[in-house]
């Protein structure tokens, strides 16, 4: 079951196309990383899902129903450009935002008190937002995003502007929410955190969806038959021993061992590589190199850009 | 609708609770009432006592064989508690005058009857009232002398002397017309509307810019439609304006009553004195006009102005004009990133507003002119110009003009709100771009 299903969305502005026939599905309970370089169309997509703007064509489904204003209270949204009313008191403001999301004042009050306790910021209730530091205000804003317990939360660049400690706190909260069954979509440039917390990703580049799927499938799909061969012996002998079926990409030393990164060519297998290697060196270990999200990201984006030129 | 209410509530409460609102609410009436009381106080309270030395050089003549010879003005002036007269035949030098106890020295020419001229020497410039009192006294004596010289009976002269008052009569209702005076009252309301639209329209613009530049707007419009947010803000601020207006009326009333109560005993005696002075001054002509003028003013305020219509129309045109302009101000606030960029878009909004103010001033001198008619119909100027015409009243033949103007204003603000909504929706999410009019035109044609 997909919490969010986007079908063939196209959105054009006066001078450029922001989304071109994009389809995505966000499975229930997943942490979905929406990736793409700046200007790819991520924010436009997020705004369409939040009904801030509408698509020119295409459909959006929320839990199988066509997206409509009644779903607003079931979605939480933390925009990339964050802000609060500077002159308003923290508690008052959080109450206001909660009520706009459809909570009653009483429920909102209780829920907020709980969250303020969790984040250990009870003392901020009567402070004006302008008295808070940027990181503090971001915490408050994170609370206002999740306090109405939406089943689907969209976080646009959730870690930007947080120091490492608070970023970790937020990461922990995202995981906790996910364990409780909340579906989360987040856009980020931080590929490390994508690998750490995301279960699924979708990559948009130049207004077009380039790839989508669970992290495992995506990384498997981008495996290129590259192996790290750890051995004792002479680097030159293994280089000389390799034929056209293997390509030495890189090599380095670690803890007294040699490591060669080798790409298998022409449908050769690991066994073939080992057969060759064993003859000339003492093999210690062979590991398949699984591409990092960072590598995949760069690969997809650069290839696409090349083909454009 | 519920969410719009929430927004209205927030906009209203955050502003009403502001220190600046509370200060303005209290200082405004103190200022207005203070100004009014000061005006009245100053008008009544020229309390200084003038000691006038009358230097009478006119020839001493006996009126008849029995009486002592005396000069023309000798002991002829009527004294009041504020005006004391001493008589002499010899003028003091300026130095002597400066060290004397007299506050004024009135020096008559010998031939004043032929050349009516006198000098008033002062250390401190006397009030207009004191001067006109002295003038009236001198004139009265000379007049009497001339009557005597020409052997005209004073009673005959009084019956000849004529003071004509021209009353304007409206051919349609046959009543005496006070349109000019009524127009003045309407102009007062026009000024109020002008200021309120400006004051609160700019607040709407600032509010929109605050939401845009603090970036909270994106969170809010993920919960409500941009149009709801815009209207919530506009309506919330309108309520702030009405609250302030109402508080001003009430507080001004209270303060004015209290203050005039405090100075009233004083004021009452003052008024008596003024009355006495006037009676003395106008004894010669025994003019009942003053009384009439005062009651005319009262009649104008109480009966000539159709107050329920006036206040009803004030509310209607204030709200209509405010909605029209505030939505335009909101569109400007949404289109720009910071205050300095507002200039180019403010111009086309402020010009019609100021123009309406100017036409309203024309309406004072020529209330039924063509320009006044047209600009009382155009929604951009009608909230201001129409106030003057409402004060003058409508009859069966012209009431359609009021109806048409009202209908046009409603159409005008609906159009403005619709247009502003379109610009607002696009503008609030547009950052770091210098906006041109061409761009705004594009926004208006976007679909959501």
TrEMBL record, chain A:
Keyword set, alphabetical order: ATP-binding, Nodulation, Nucleotide-binding, Transport
GO MF annotation terms: ATP binding; ATP hydrolysis activity
Record has Transport as a keyword: yes
UniProt keyword ATP-binding, yes or no: yes
The ABC transporter domain, residue ranges: 4-231
Signal sequence bounds: none
Pfam families documented for this protein: ABC_tran, DrrA1-3_C
Family annotation (InterPro entries): AAA+_ATPase, ABC_transporter-like_ATP-bd, ABC_transporter-like_CS, ABC_transporter_ATP-binding, DrrA1/2-like_C, P-loop_NTPase
Top-level taxon: Bacteria
Assigned protein family: Belongs to the ABC transporter superfamily.
Annotated protein name in UniProt: ABC transporter ATP-binding protein
Organism (species): Cryomorpha ignava
From TrEMBL, chain B:
Pfam families for this protein: ABC2_membrane_3
Gene Ontology cellular-component terms listed: membrane
SUPFAM superfamilies linked: Periplasmic binding protein-like II
Entry's localization field: Membrane
Membrane topology listed for this record: Multi-pass membrane protein
Source domain of life: Bacteria
GO molecular function: ABC-type transporter activity
This protein's UniProt keywords: Membrane, Transmembrane, Transmembrane helix
Limits of the ABC-2 type transporter transmembrane domain: 19-420
Protein name: ABC transporter permease
């Amino acid at each position: 079951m997909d919490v969010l299903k986007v079908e063939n969305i196209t959105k054009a502005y006066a001078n450029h196309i922001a989304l071109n026939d994009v389809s995505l599905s966000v499975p229930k309970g997943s942490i979905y990383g929406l990736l793409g370089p700046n200007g790819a169309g991520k924010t436009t997509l997020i705004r369409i899902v939040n009904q801030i703007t509408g698509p020119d064509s295409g459909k959006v489904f929320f839990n199988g129903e066509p997206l409509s204003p009644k779903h607003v209270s079931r979605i939480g949204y933390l925009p990339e450009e964050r802000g609060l009313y500077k002159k308003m008191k923290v508690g008052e403001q959080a109450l206001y935002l909660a009520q706009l999301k459809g909570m009653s004042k009483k429920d909102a009050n209780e829920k907020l008190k709980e969250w303020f306790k969790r984040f250990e910021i009870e003392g901020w209730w009567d402070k004006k937002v302008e008295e808070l530091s940027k990181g503090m205000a971001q915490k408050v804003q994170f609370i206002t995003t999740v306090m109405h317990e939406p089943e689907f939360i969209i976080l646009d660049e959730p870690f930007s502007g947080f120091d490492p400690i608070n970023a970790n706190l937020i990461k922990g909260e995202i995981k906790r929410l996910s364990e409780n069954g909340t579906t989360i979509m987040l856009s980020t440039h931080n590929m490390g955190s994508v690998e750490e917390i995301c279960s699924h990703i979708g990559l948009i580049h130049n207004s077009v969806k380039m790839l989508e799927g669970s992290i495992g499938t995506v990384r498997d799909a981008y495996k290129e038959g590259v192996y790290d061969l750890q051995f004792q012996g002479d680097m030159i002998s293994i280089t000389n021993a390799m034929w056209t079926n293997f390509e030495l990409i890189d090599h380095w030393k670690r803890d007294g061992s040699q490591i060669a990164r080798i790409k298998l060519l022409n449908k050769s297998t690991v066994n073939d590589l080992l057969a060759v290697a064993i003859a000339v060196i003492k093999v210690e270990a062979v590991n398949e190199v699984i591409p990092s999200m960072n590598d995949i990201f760069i690969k997809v984006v650069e290839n696409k850009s090349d083909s454009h030129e | 609708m519920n969410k719009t209410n929430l927004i209205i509530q927030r906009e209203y409460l955050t502003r009403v609770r502001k220190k600046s609102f509370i200060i303005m609410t209290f200082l405004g009436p103190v200022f207005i009432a203070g100004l009014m009381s000061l005006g009245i106080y100053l008008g009544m309270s020229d309390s200084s006592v003038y000691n006038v030395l009358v230097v009478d050089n006119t020839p001493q003549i006996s009126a008849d064989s029995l009486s002592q010879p005396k000069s023309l003005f000798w002991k002829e002036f009527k004294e009041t508690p504020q005006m004391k007269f001493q008589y002499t035949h010899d003028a003091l030098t300026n130095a002597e005058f400066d060290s004397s106890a007299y506050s004024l020295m009135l020096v008559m020419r010998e031939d004043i009857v032929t050349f009516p001229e006198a000098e008033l020497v002062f250390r401190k410039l006397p009030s207009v009232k004191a001067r006109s009192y002295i003038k009236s006294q001198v004139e009265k004596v000379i007049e009497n002398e001339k009557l005597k010289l020409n052997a005209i009976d004073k009673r005959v002269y009084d019956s000849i002397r004529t003071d004509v008052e021209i009353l304007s009569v409206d051919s349609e209702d046959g009543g005496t017309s006070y349109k000019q005076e009524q127009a003045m009252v309407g102009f007062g309301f026009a000024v109020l509307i002008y200021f309120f639209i400006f004051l609160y329209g700019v607040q709407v613009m600032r509010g929109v810019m605050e939401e845009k530049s603090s970036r909270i707007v994106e969170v809010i419009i993920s919960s409500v439609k941009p149009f709801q947010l815009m209207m919530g803000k506009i309506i919330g601020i309108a309520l702030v304006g009405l609250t302030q207006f109402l508080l001003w009326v009430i507080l001004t009333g209270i303060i004015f009553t209290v203050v005039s109560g405090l100075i009233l005993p004083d004021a009452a005696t003052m008024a008596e004195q003024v009355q006495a002075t006037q009676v003395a001054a106008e004894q010669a002509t025994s003019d009942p006009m003053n009384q009439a003028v005062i009651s005319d003013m009262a009649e104008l305020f109480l009966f000539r102005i159709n107050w329920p219509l006036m206040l009803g129309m004030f509310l209607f045109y204030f709200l209509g004009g405010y909605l029209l302009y505030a939505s335009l101000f909101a569109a400007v606030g949404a289109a720009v990133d910071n205050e300095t960029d507002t200039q180019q878009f403010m111009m086309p909004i402020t010009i019609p507003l100021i123009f309406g103010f100017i036409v309203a001033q024309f309406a004072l001198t020529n209330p039924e002119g063509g320009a006044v008619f047209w600009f009382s119909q155009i929604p951009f100027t009608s909230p201001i110009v129409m106030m003057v015409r409402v004060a003058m009243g409508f009859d069966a033949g012209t009431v359609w003009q009021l109806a048409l103007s009202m209908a046009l204003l409603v159409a005008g603000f609906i159009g403005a709100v619709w247009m502003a909504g379109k610009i607002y929706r696009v503008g609030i999410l547009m950052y770091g771009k210098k906006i041109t009019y061409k761009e705004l035109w594009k926004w208006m044609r976007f679909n959501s």
